[in-house]
Amino acid sequence: MTLELEQVEVRIPIGSGREVHALTEIDLVAVPGKPHFVVGGSGSGKSTLCSAVTGLLPGNARFSGTVKVGDLAAPALWGQRGRVIGVVPQSAMTCFTPVRRLGGQLAETVRYLGGERGPGELLDVVGLDRSALAKYPLELSGGMLQLAAIAAALAGDPPVVVADEPTSALDRQRSEDVVQLLAKLAADRVVLVATHDLAAVRSAAADADLSVMFASRIVETGTAGEVFDNPSADYTRDLLAALPENGLHPLPWPTPDLIDLPADYRYGG
């Protein structure tokens, strides 16, 4: 199945007739066999894009456009969260109850979603030792918890997995390991990943598809290698120049406030 977004917009009212322009004119296609990473600075809209796909937008958000997996489109699609779309949240700790062992929680998730793989098999898929099943979440490292969160997202055997900033609390090596794992999982499913960690994507998933976001819009899409080596958007060039290995050049134009953002706003003012 293919994940398709067409002209997706999200507006979030904040009172007094004002609204946050959280997503604007988003077109995106993610296919099995190639992971799709969404990158951009803080406040660019990456997490909101994930929420629009998974149906986890704020209750007062106004959504328009099309999000579909195969023939199943939102909002009906959102009712199949876990079975059609597996979710890896920003904070792996939020996946689990701290006073219950990991194995019992994964087993309960598998039963609820009707998955075919047991907890031990899920840990095998993500490369986490089965001994973790007997541990409480607080006994696991950040990297182990992130792997466990990915295992939980796979519990219902979904054809789509959406991961929102899965490397945000990890060191460089763990970040690259998680990116490599998600790229591997894309062999037989759609994997959409929002991340600020361009270095990990460049190092571990150069063949992936990549969309760059700025101010609620996608400004560039291509393979990661193409975008990193020959960016076409001014924002992408400046974003890459800000990486440590490229000199830590500050962005000349900051991310704007998305409240009542003018429809014709583009990078550079």
Write out key terms for the chains shown.
nucleotide-binding; 269 residues; Rossmann fold; alpha/beta; cell membrane; 28% helix; four-stranded antiparallel β-sheet; globular
Would you spell out the secondary-structure blueprint of this structure?
Elements: E1 3-15, E2 18-30, E3 36-39, H1 46-54, E4 62-69, E5 72-73, E6 85-88, H2 102-113, H3 119-126, H4 142-153, E7 160-164, H5 172-185, E8 190-194, H6 198-204, E9 209-214, E10 217-223, H7 224-229, H8 234-241
Parallel strand pairs: 3-8, 3-9, 6-7, 7-8
Antiparallel strand pairs: 1-2, 1-4, 4-5, 9-10
Helix pairs in contact: 3-4, 5-6
Helix content: 25-40%
- State the distance separating the first and last CA atoms: 39 Å
Largest sheet: number of strands, sense, barrel closure: 6 strands, mixed
What is the tally of helical segments? 8
**CATH fold label of the largest domain:** Rossmann fold
Please state the overall shape, judged from the principal axes of the Cα atoms: globular
Helix and strand sequence: EEEHEEEHHHEHEHEEHH
Beta fraction of the residues?
15-25%
CATH class of the largest domain: Alpha Beta
Number of domains: 2
> How many β-strand stretches?
10
- What's the mean pLDDT score? 94
- What's the arrangement of strands in the largest beta sheet? 6-7-8-3-9-10
Uncertain segments are: none
Using the CA coordinates, give the radius of gyration. Answer: 18 Å
Architecture per CATH nomenclature, i.e. the level-2 architecture of the largest domain: 3-Layer(aba) Sandwich
The CATH homologous superfamily of the largest domain is termed P-loop containing nucleotide triphosphate hydrolases
Which structural class do the helices and strands define? alpha/beta
